[in-house]
Amino acid sequence: MPPPPTPYGSWPSPISAALVVSGSLRLSEPRLDGEDVYFIEGRPQEKGRNVIIRRTPDGALQDALPAPYDARSRAHEYGGGSYTVHDGTVYFTHFADQRIYIVEPGEQPRPLTAEGPLRYADLVVDARRNRLVCIVEDHSGSDQGAENTLAAIDLEGDGTPETLAAGDDFYSRPAISPDGTKLAWMAWNHPNMPWDGTEIWVADLDAHGRLHNRHQVAGGPEESAVQPKWSPDGTLYFISDRNDWWNLCKRDGERVSPVLQMPAEFCHPQWVFGRFSYGFLSPQTILAIYTQNGEWSLGMVDAENGELRPVKSSFTYLDYVQVADERLVCVGGSATEPNGVRMLDLLADEWHTLKFASEVDVDPGYLSTPQAVEFPTEGGLTAHGLYYPPKNKDVTPPEDSAPPLIVMSHGGPTSATPSLFDLRIPFWTSRGFAVLDVNYGGSTGYGRAYRQRLNLNWGVVDVQDCENGAKTLAAQGLADPERLIIRGGSAGGYTTLCALTFGKTFKAGASHYGIGDLETLATDTHKFESRYLDTMIGPYPQDKDTYIARSPVNHYRQIEAPVIFFQGSEDRVVPPDQSETMFEAVRAKEIPTAYVLFEGEGHGFRQAASIQRALEAELYFYGRVFGFDVDKGIEPVKIENL
């Protein structure tokens, strides 16, 4: 006999916040070095420390970095590209002091660069000249006035960077040709972000490593050209959206031509350094990942004939591709399988998992499978998302009501939500919540035109798409219109606050390090994003009126729904005063609200205790607001005005 019906939102669940945290390693940046594989493992249980792991051919995993070393760059604040490996020697940027260190087999790390205001990323070994080529970010002045350059560091010198290229606002992706005679790189300038307009440059390298005959070969203010790479025969390849989609291109002589053209994106947006999406099996054969309709696939590209053959895999999310010696390593997962470091042996045609991000074994009876959805939105357009229905094998749902719906607005906003196993989703769905993860207009993965829907319309288009997604599900009986919730982090937090301020669709929300004041963001953030809002809102201060009009903090009297705020004390992307100002404004209106500050956390929470507390506090908040029964072991949150 089935159990009696249990109200949505009050279902008892074995997926606790502690369980979520225990299965939340961050895996990134695999590297191939001979027969060894290296990758980064971010450990919440060690306060978010990034450890470089070495995997030997016998399958053994070893920490290549002893505690407390932490391979994490602060360049662009988001970092990435923090290490490289060559012949068993590891070169990495240590988070605490941002110096580059060298780790030789069996030895302790020793510093290469001096202490000071410099940050490093995209490390590449120039073996021919015994040096590192990398990106240098100089913070001698203000954070917004940091100077970015392309530089080289002699591995036997005093660690002083020698500038190779300067003058552009940003640099990335240095790539040395196989014969060591040429260097390619990316550059771009304000107000563009890497997905708006970038340039690919090439220069000749002399015997001493100096650059000659530097010239631009692709890209511009209206073309995002990214990820330059040299094929084994010295042909330059890159990815460009010149035909609306990020597709593979190559440069033959003085001519740039597409390798193939298809309505698919062959890369992720470049929020961090060190992210690649293709590699070479031979001069004419490329292994590349690509996404269509929110799902990633792997393909083998014949560069001569412009043909793509899908490579079989069970993954719907793929990233960080490296290819060498008939092997591919990457990070990948699916809606039902956790993210992991994966290796494809081309000769044996076999996939191997080197490390799972989560070793937690959860009964499928508590796991909700995402459904890709499209729904109508403003202007006769269509928006996209992933819908997760409530699921719990131990519970009988009530027949006379629809579930509360949590609408998730991803960060960026130039990003995308993937179809990927994440215990933070069943944390909600196993308790009787439905979830809609929205890829609103402005998200990547759907072409340049879709990505540009948000231009000058941030705080409008994203909010409309989140609202219309919720309304569509409510109209279909899949969500309770009186219990619609919106949550998001960073830019998703801004969307959340805008939806609660300027709309009436949502009845509660959670802002994780979200933006309340656009003027503060424009004048008090780091260099990488300091002109981002020129495209999303308009130039500042020329369009100051728009900034004021779209800043939720200036219109707090319009908020009618309860909201909880989460913030890191060391956040440089969205400083704490943004959340604090918004919280005080909501509290002054006598609306239920709460503010949870995490000491020592930056932009995005990395420590296990912070991640667990944020999940539990958010659940507790919704429980008090809507009257759900929540886990009795959760520490209460101080809620004002309740």
Can you tell me about this structure?
This protein is an alpha+beta fold. 14% of the residues lie in helices and 35% in strands. The chain has 10 helices and 36 strands. A hairpin with a 4-residue loop joins strand 27 (340-345) and strand 28 (350-356). Helix 4 packs across helix 5 (491-502). It is globular and about 75 Å long.
Topology, element by element:
Layout: H1 17-22, E1 26-33, E2 36-43, E3 49-55, E4 61-63, E5 83-86, E6 89-93, E7 100-103, E8 110-111, E9 118-126, E10 131-138, E11 147-154, E12 162-165, E13 170-176, E14 182-188, E15 199-205, E16 211-219, E17 225-230, E18 236-240, E19 247-252, E20 255-258, E21 278-282, E22 285-292, E23 295-302, E24 307-311, E25 317-324, E26 327-333, E27 340-345, E28 350-356, E29 371-377, E30 381-388, E31 405-409, H2 424-429, E32 434-439, H3 448-451, H4 461-475, E33 484-489, H5 491-502, E34 508-512, H6 518-523, H7 532-536, H8 544-549, E35 563-568, H9 576-588, E36 593-598, H10 608-626
Parallel strand pairs: 31-32, 31-33, 33-34, 34-35, 35-36
Antiparallel strand pairs: 1-2, 2-3, 3-4, 5-6, 6-7, 7-8, 9-10, 10-11, 11-12, 13-14, 14-15, 15-16, 17-18, 18-19, 19-20, 21-22, 22-23, 23-24, 25-26, 26-27, 27-28, 29-30, 30-32
